[in-house]
Amino acid sequence: MRYILIIMALALLPLTLTGINPNAGEYGFQFLQIPISPVASALGGTGIYATGYAGGYIFNPAANLLEERFSLSLQHNLWLVDTSTSQLVYSNGNRNRHFGLAGRILDYGELENRDDTGLLIGTYHPLDASLMANYALRIMPDHLLGINAGLIYEKLDTASSFGLSADLGYVYLTPITNAILFSSVRNIGFTSKMDKDSIKLPLTLEVGLGYTVPELAFADRIAQQLTFKKAVDNDLTAAYAAEISMWQLLSLRLGYKFLHDEEGLTAGLGINWHNLEIDYGWTSFSDRLNDSHSFGITYNF
Q: Where in the sequence is the domain holding 118, given as residue range(s)?
């Protein structure tokens, strides 16, 4: 285990030392960074742990080993301007092993195509898509590892690109009760050229800690998380998130994104009724952009 941790640390170190890449425009497939789920949207764009979030493994491939669940979830996000994102998530795990599938689509809507003089010559429909599989394993009682791997696809007008993407995740259950440390490296992979130009994936490091306060007088539990994220084409950012679960029925969620130019406060709620979960998430943006609203429905078998 010691050697595994050393290898992961050495792999992550270069990202922590880099600033904004001067070729940031070369990094595509940015939809991989969008928190489509209303749970993630409400929680500062994180995959907060110990909340029973079916798609937590999208942010950290080892996240869903913390709870036992068998779920199918459909989520939709009204993103910026006229774009929208949709996601279908399958999660099946028993705390020792987890298997998941996730399909994601970013729809830009129909855009106008004009020539050099500004004359309208038609329309086109850009699209981004991803199909991912997850496998996670509890390799020791306190050490959890997971991996995501899948296909990605991006289409603009007549040009398109496809590729392979992978994520690695690790969770450590610390000796402090209900406290965890976690890290992940996302968007590892390669893509084909689009119209003779290579497209790089937005390689991203995420590290953080989480703490859950169980069985309070007014709540079933309060789960909290502080996350630091560094994408190779962006500055270091941070996010704090908290979820309060009450009466095994209602979940109130709040988050805040630090060091972001356009984003800040996030909020949302979830309603659990028998095996059904209904979720809503809101993300605030600056005055130049519209706020984002996301909705989801999950069935737990």
A: 31-300
